[in-house]
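2024-03-11 09:14:02 INFO worker-7 job=invfold-0412 stage=load source=structure_tokens
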């Protein structure tokens, strides 16, 4: 301060008063940055609209099936499905896995901030944070959504950023468990629902959905659209990874390709006419169908008052602690039926998946047929009757 005062031409007889001469009557308070305010109602409504539009554009079956989710859990459903779209598209929209990893880290940070109640000004994060706060308010803090499950989804996406093929059919199943099954677990938590039976059914449904999603995306990954050379995401230079990405890749499990004699270079050159491709698609689709059949049989057992026919393999893992729940005991059959009734809307992706697999079978497992990429006009009606009958 003295230096600043000395810049002026003071009269010789005048001695400026510096801060050292002033008596201190108070201490300067220490200020901290205020915590970010919660999202406004207008921001939440805008976030809902954004997430709904994202589903309409990239995941129309999930948008249709929103109607079967209880209204109180619909914001969480929209946020989770939009989060799934945003993270799943990264591998197809970036030039290199390094850029993809950076974007996934962005979503990790967003999840952390959403769970801390200070979401960034980003629609999916705003709606997720709102859904978390609403769940806390509805249940008095007794029900939570698992942040680790969202991180699991991100971690699984990161493993396949370069669209590499799955080593085995079992690894493809694990991918379905760690992505689509986990989405269903999170949606069940948003109801809220903590049931070993509901999670068990959701596990099989999610695996079927995940496996089918890979089959549906196979033509687009094998023959990606030309890059936008005016975009910042366009590859600079002729890196091997960029060349591989522009040429496409075949994401079928390697063990299935070996058994059926499929070579990825044949698929990239001949498309649907590649030798053994339909046999490989048939084997993968059969595994997805098996999970739907298992889930359907479990529903039949529950509504018949019987035990499910096998144990839940993830019981006891993080997020799957059911405080001593079992599938046996007096009154358990009635309790299971009530739980499944409440949770049934979460299982509805099984309807859309079943319709697509049926269409694939009618087309002789030619996964490149254009009909498989069209919206199924029967889904709303099939979903309505499935929900009404509590059977898919």
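2024-03-11 09:14:09 INFO worker-7 stage=emit residues=392
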């Amino acid at each position: 301060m003295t230096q600043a005062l000395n810049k002026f031409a003071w009269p010789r007889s005048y001695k400026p008063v510096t801060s050292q001469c002033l008596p201190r009557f108070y201490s300067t308070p220490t200020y901290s940055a205020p915590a970010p305010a919660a999202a406004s109602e207008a921001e939440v409504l805008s976030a809902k609209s954004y997430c709904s539009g994202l589903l309409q554009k990239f995941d129309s079956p999930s948008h249709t099936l929103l109607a079967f989710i209880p209204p109180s859990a619909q914001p969480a459903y929209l946020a989770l499905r939009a989060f799934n779209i945003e993270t799943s598209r990264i591998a197809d929209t970036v030039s290199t896995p390094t850029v993809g990893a950076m974007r996934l880290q962005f979503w990790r940070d967003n999840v952390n901030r959403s769970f801390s109640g200070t979401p960034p000004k980003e629609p999916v994060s705003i709606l997720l944070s709102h859904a978390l706060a609403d769940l806390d308010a509805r249940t008095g803090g007794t029900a939570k959504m698992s942040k680790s499950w969202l991180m699991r989804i991100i971690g699984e996406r990161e493993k396949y950023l370069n669209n590499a093929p799955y080593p085995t059919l079992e690894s493809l199943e694990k991918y379905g468990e760690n992505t689509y099954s986990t989405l269903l677990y999170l949606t069940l938590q948003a109801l809220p629902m903590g049931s070993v039976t509901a999670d068990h059914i959701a596990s099989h449904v999610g695996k079927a959905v995940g496996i089918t999603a890979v089959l549906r995306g196979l033509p687009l990954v094998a023959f990606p659209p030309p890059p936008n050379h005016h975009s910042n995401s366009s590859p600079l230079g002729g890196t091997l990874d960029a060349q591989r990405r522009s040429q496409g890749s075949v994401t079928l499990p390697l063990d299935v390709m070996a058994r059926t004699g499929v070579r990825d270079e044949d698929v990239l050159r001949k498309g649907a006419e590649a030798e053994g491709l339909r046999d490989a698609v048939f084997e993968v689709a059969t595994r997805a169908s098996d999970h739907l059949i298992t889930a359907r049989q479990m529903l039949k057992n529950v509504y018949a008052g019987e035990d499910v026919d096998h144990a839940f393999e993830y019981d006891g893992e993080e997020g799957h602690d059911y405080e001593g729940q079992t599938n046996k005991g007096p009154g358990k059959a009635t309790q299971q039926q009530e739980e499944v009734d409440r949770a049934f809307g979460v299982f509805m992706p099984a309807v859309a998946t079943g319709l697509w697999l049926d269409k694939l079978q009618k087309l002789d497992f030619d996964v490149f047929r254009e009909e498989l990429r069209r919206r199924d006009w029967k889904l709303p009606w099939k979903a309505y009757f499935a929900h009404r009958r509590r059977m898919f």
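2024-03-11 09:14:09 INFO worker-7 stage=report msg="DSSP finds 17 helices and no strands in the chain."
2024-03-11 09:14:10 INFO worker-7 job finished
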